[in-house]
Amino acid sequence: MLKPIATALIVLAALAGCDSRNPSAPAADTAASDAAPAAAPQDADAPIPSEITGSISLREPAVINPGAKLSVQLVDVAQQEVALATHNEDLASQPPYSFRLPVNPAGIDRTRVYVVNVEITDGERHYTQALQAPVLTGGAGSDIKIVLNAEATPGELLKADFNKLKNHIGGMRRIQDAFLDGDLSVAWDGFVEPGNRLRFMRVNTELGEGDTAVRSNVEYAYLNDKPMALLVKGRANSRLGWDENGQLILNERGGGETFTAEEAQKYYDDAMKAFAMAQPKMPKKR
User: Fold this and answer.
1) Other C-beta atoms within 10 Å of 78: how many?
2) N or C: which end of the chain has fewer CB within 10 A?
3) Quick one: which of 95, 96, 97, 89 has its CA closest to 68?
4) What residues contact 31, with CB distance under 8 A and at least 6 apart?
C-alpha cells in the first residue's frame, strides 16, 4: 500500500515544481504605527455642516483592482451598527480617493460623538482604518483624511499558522519511518502533540537513481486530523491550504501561478494518504 501513496506524492510534487520562476505574491503589512490625521478643527458651536468631505490613501502602496468596493459610513460611535449616511462606490482607479458624504444637520446631536468608517474590499483583501476619524461635534471638523491599512487575507493568516506550527515541532513527539520498494525510496517523519494528535509531517521521496531521479520534499500540517496546509519545496515553492470546512483558501503555485481545483483536490487527497501512512507509527494510547 505504501508504494501507491509515495508514488502519488512524487508525481504531485513534480507537478508543483514544473515552473521554476520566483514567486511574486505580495506580503501584507498590517502594522499601524502612523497616527491618522484628524479632521480639521472647527468651533464647537459652529453650525453642523450638511456635508462631510475627505480623502482616502493607503499606508503602504498597493494596486487596487478595478471593481473593488469602497464603503464610507457616518455613525454614532456608540451605535456603529446604524449608518446615518453612506457612500458606496465601485473603484476604477488607484488611490488616493476622495468622497463627499451628505449629512442631515437636524439628525446630529452635539452631545454625541460621530466618526466616519471607511473600508475598501478588493477580493479577499480588506483595507481598514487603524484609528477612528471623529467628525462634526466636539470641535471636530467636516473635512478628514483617512489612511487605510491592508489586513492579512485568510491565506496569509494560514501561512503564518503553518510557519508557527513548524517552529514548534521541536517540542512534539517525533515518529518516523523509511522504506524501499524497487526504485522508489521514501523517508518521512511526523510530529505528535499532546493528546496524540499528528500535527506535522515531512515526506521525502526519490524515484530512480542518479541524474534522472525524481525527488520530492513535501511538508504537511494537520488540524483535527484533516489537512490544514502543505508546502511543496523546490526551486519555486508551492503552497496549498484549507479552512476548517475544507474550503481552499491558500493557492500559490511556484512562479506566481495557481493550481486548478482538480490539482488542489489531488493534493488534499494525497495529504490524507500521508496521514494514513503515519498511523501505524503513532504512539499507543494508554
Assistant:
1) 9
2) C
3) 89
4) 149
Distance CA 228, CA 159 (A): 10
- Proportion of the chain above pLDDT 90, given as a percent: 73
What's the rounded Cα separation, in Å, for the pair 286 and 91? 60
| pLDDT tens per residue, range 93-115 | 999 999 999 999 999 999 999 99
Of the candidates 224, 260, 228, which has an alpha carbon nearest to the alpha carbon of residue 242?
A: 228
173-181 and 184-193: which strand pairing? antiparallel
| Alpha helices for the chain (secondary structure H) | 2-16, 154-167, 261-278
Asked if 255 contacts 242 with a C-beta cutoff of 8 angstroms, the reply is no
**Who contacts 26 (Cβ-Cβ below 8 Å, separation ≥6)?**
62
Parallel/antiparallel/unpaired status of strands 114-122 and 69-76: antiparallel
What single-letter amino acid sits at 148? L
Residue for grid cell 511543496: 232
Please give the Cα distance from 189 to 205 (Å, whole number): 12
Q: Is the pTM value of this prediction over 0.90? A: no
**C-alpha–C-alpha distance, residues 111 and 239, integer Å:** 53
| Residue with grid cell 480617493, as numbered in its chain | 97
**Which own/partner pairs from 210-214 qualify as long-range (CB within 8 Å, at least 24 positions apart)?**
214/10, 214/14
Report which secondary-structure segment, H or E, holds 49: none
